[in-house]
Amino acid sequence: xxxxxxxxxxxxxxxxxxxxxxxxxxxxxxxxxxxxxxxxxxxxxxxxxxxxxxxxxxxxxxxxxxxxxxxxxxxxxxxxxxxxxxxxxxxxxxxxxxxxxxxxxxxxxxxxxxxxxxxxxxxxxxxxxxxxxxxxxxxxxxxxxxxxxxxxxxxxxxxxxxxxxxxxxxxxxxxxxxxxxxxxxxxxxxxxxxxx
Length: 196
Prior knowledge:
By secondary structure, the protein is α+β, with helices and mostly antiparallel strands. Helices cover 24% and strands 34% of the residues. The chain has one domain (23-195): Alpha-Beta Barrel (Multidrug-efflux Transporter 1 Regulator Bmrr, Chain A).
């Protein structure tokens, strides 16, 4: 085996040594690590390890406000920070929503792999957050995620969880998008509801 081939295989070796094999929809990026606990009709039960994020709070989780928050985070990664440094952060981006009906509020977050140096943001609304280890119920869907199809998948997920006899936190969910806007095929989106 040539040295170049050995070097090319090194990342795969590291993944298996750590015991985490990222699924296809992470597209080779360092996604938040999880274990599938059980697969049910219409959803998966996953256990996520604790993870680190950069986050922007949004007062109301409309599509317009979410896009504005994503642009803030994107600008931060492209050098809008005190070191004018590009920061390579992988997808997914998360929209965390709390509340019910028209009173929704939440946050938009981007995953931060372990060991990533984060310079101080120029925008004071960007902060670092931690997601503790958690059990979540996950429904996946393809295509371009919108507010409408996100809500439709949330309702289907809740129905499936109830049919499986599981309890969940009713007024909180996460929408996860694993693809940058310009990726046209093999898109993967998720809706998460937290186990109660």
